[in-house]
Amino acid sequence: NTERYSDVIEGVHDTKDNFLKSIKEGHTEIAPSQMFAAASILEGCSFINGSPQNTFCPALIEMAREKMVFIGGDDFKSGQTKIKSVLVDFLVASG
Fold first, then answer.
1. Would you call 71 helix, strand, or coil by DSSP?
2. Residues 29-87: pLDDT tens digits?
3. What is the three-class DSSP state of 38?
């Protein structure tokens, strides 16, 4: 993933209303993953963040709670690496 960490800014990422307004205005500190998360939440769909950026700002957490939608995750790679390590050890030991 090449998405950079965005700055979490008061008046942009702090509330649902500020966040949605900032998306409409094309604010440069709204990350693509934050837009995808917002779209999922607004549609009532869970959002699993598989990349290591700071997607879940206070506004998105507020939105998810209001819609009673699950959001979670911060990096699939770390878990994937652990699973691969365990599988490799198991397969090597199994012959």
1. strand
2. 999 999 999 999 999 999 998 777 789 999 999 999 999 999 988 766 655 566 667 77
3. helix
Counting DSSP H helices and E strands in the chain, the numbers are 4, 2
Q: Phi/psi zone of residue 68: left (φ > 0), alpha (ψ -120 to 50 degrees), beta?
A: left
The Cα 70–Cα 28 span in angstroms is: 26
15 in Cβ contact with 66 (< 8 Å): no
Q: Name the pTM for this structure.
A: 0.76
| C-alpha–C-alpha distance, residues 37 and 56, integer Å | 8
Alpha carbons within 13 angstroms on the beta-carbon side of residue 11 total 2
- Beta carbons of 34 and 55 less than 8 angstroms apart: yes
Element (H, E) at 48: strand 47-48
